[in-house]
Amino acid sequence: SEPTPTQHSKPTPTQHSEPTPTTHSLGKHRRMKCDNLALQPTKKVKNDSSEATGHLIPRLAAPSAIERPSEPAPMQPSEPTPTQHSEPSLESPSAVEQYATYLKSVYMKQKPPMYDKLPQIKVRKYIKLALIGKDDITPEEADEFTQSTIRGNIHDITRKKQPMTFDQIAQLEDGSEPKCILIEGAPGIGKSTFSWKLSRKWGKGKILQQYQLLVMLRLRDNRVRRATDVLHLFRHPDEVTQEAAAKEIVRRRGKGLLLLLEGFDELPANLHLEDSLFMRIITGVELPEATVMITSRPSASGLLLATCRNDISQHIEIIGFTPEDVQCYITTAFEDNPSLQSGLQEYLSCYPHMKSMMYVPLNCAIVSQVYRNSIKDKFVPKTMSDLYTSLIRSLLLCYLHEHPVHGRKVWRLRSFSDLPHDVFQQLRELGRIAYEGILQGQQVIFSDLPSDFDGLGLMQSMNELYVDEGAAVSFSFFHLTLQEFMAAFHLSEKPVERQIEDFQRYGSKLHSRLQYSHFHVMLQFLAGLGKFAG
Fold first, then answer.
1. How far apart, in whole angstroms, are the C-alpha atoms of residue 359 and residue 53?
2. Is 438:519 a contact under the CB 8 Å cutoff?
């Protein structure tokens, strides 16, 4: 009856070896469970740290301790218990989730275009859209709404249209069918404001939450233009996160991505070719599962429609202000001064040409500011060139108040010739930069200027970060139309003979690019400024 040594020694190795395979199996199961969980999108939790990622982070129960048994268990050692199967685990956010959080923080900090240069009026009800049909129509076939969107200028789109709200465009289906959406409008109509508002509302979690990522690429940006591979388009301050997120986006073929290409008209001609990176994205060769949204002026989008018509699933126009919107804008802008309000309305009645330009929100903002200042200057603009001349005078006055020249401030500025000599020479240099930028393939961001360059309040500086090259300071005009005016000013300063020489020298370039709206607008300004050139 006495136990033998063999009986005594049997439990010992079994007791020590039992937990080892069990623990290994549990760890493997945790990893598999979390890998699967990270791919499943769920509802966001309000006021939770996971809100920015669009995923639900599971709440963890306290892990149960694994006790070493004192006697051999009847269950096989490697077989996990039900408790072990249901035990959750926490993983850190994926690179794509970190990238989404970063983008949302960027969009939330961005200010509206021209934020500190023009009075800011709430834009919520002013972004009005029209869904455009695919077939051209005659004036007789146009209904009342379509006729109201035709202004009689080069930017008109003569196709049947139906009204569309901002909220409707924000209700894109998340789909198995990727979309390519073209949004176009005249210069200053609100394309940049539209992009700003769309990305900001996505960042707040209010719209388009079916897309895990909304990536807005400003096509005027040198960093974006220089990209030769899709992987180079996605930027994050951390290089490791950037590389991992970009590779995951490409692996998914863009599924769950809304790519907003802002300013197709600002791309140089060589990037409009079919084999360029952006055209491959638009036609679905790259990131075929992504939804692509493009903003452009009508003249440049004509090329896009001619080459990619079958790839465009929706064609939308930003139609600008109705007469009622103009009236509401003026009332809001001059609510502090009813006499100025009625005076501006009388002024517009006297100058129908100026009134006809008020459907463009940027023009409306400029006219309101210029008219307010004209009470002191006793000068009211009668043409588009007059209007931008007055705007630049106003911006220069603000600059001279903040930066007195030789210790004195300039309070009145009837014309550019009244500027101090040094400032006038700087203004002429800005004109040359604007003109050369347009001739060199529509360059709107200038990175070859010294970091202490003085843009006289007409340009803004920005820090562009390149992972492989470090930071660089770049400059741009506050709006493309402002650059086009300055380019025309540069030409108007030259004698007529020199202007003719320039046209002959760059004739081939001008001829090949007249289809783009950049040269249309510049030449229109030049015609308006011609009377000042003698």
1. 39
2. yes
Cβ atoms of 300 and 521 within 8 Å: the answer is no
Query: Residue 425: CB partners within 8 Å, gap ≥ 6?
Result: none
CA distance 280 to 229: 11
Quick: pLDDT tens for 203-217: 999 989 889 999 999
Residue 247 has pLDDT above 80, yes or no: yes
Q: Token pair for residue 130?
A: 């029209």
| Spatial strand order in the sheet of 445-446 | 445-446, 470-477, 459-466
Which secondary-structure segment (H or E) carries 318? Answer: strand 314-318
**Sequence-separated (6 or more) residues with CB below 8 Å from residue 30:** 87, 88, 89
Which stretches of 409-496 are assigned E, i.e. beta strand?
A: 445-446, 459-466, 470-477
Q: Report the chain's mean pLDDT, rounded to a whole number.
A: 75
CA–CA dist 381, 370 (Å, integer):
8
Phi, psi values for residue 105, rounded to 5°: -65, -35
Distance between CA atoms of 514 and 524, rounded to whole angstroms?
12
More confident residue, 44 or 177: 177
Angle of CA points 163, 327, 125, to nearest 5°:
40
Closest CA to 165 of 212, 197, 203: 197
Q: DSSP letter at 204? A: T
CA 34, CA 11: separation in Å to the nearest integer? 36
For residue 410, what are the contacts with CB-CB under 8 A and spacing of at least 6? 397, 400, 401, 418, 419, 420
Residue 312: DSSP 8-state:
-
- Collapsing DSSP to helix, strand or coil, 475 comes out as strand
pTM over 0.90: no
Burial 121-156 (b: 16+ CB within 10 A, else e): eeeeebbbbbebeeeeeeeeebeeebebbeeeeebe
Q: 468-492 pLDDT, tens per residue?
A: 444 456 788 888 888 989 999 999 9
Rg of the Cα atoms in the chain: 31
246 neighbors 231 (Cβ within 8 angstroms): yes
CA separation for the pair 297, 328 (Å, rounded): 26
* Joined tokens for residue 288: 């075929």
Supply φ then ψ for residue 209, to 5 degrees: -75, -5
pLDDT at 408: 60
Higher pLDDT among residues 89 and 457, named by residue:
457
Q: Which residues pair with 162 in a beta bridge?
A: 131
Give whole-number Cα distances, 65 to 19, 62, 68, 78, 87, in Å: 11, 9, 10, 17, 12
Label residue 456 by pLDDT band (50, 70, 90): confident
- Does 312 score more than 60 pLDDT? yes
**Tell me, what's the pLDDT at 455?**
84
Contact 133, 320 (CB under 8 A): no
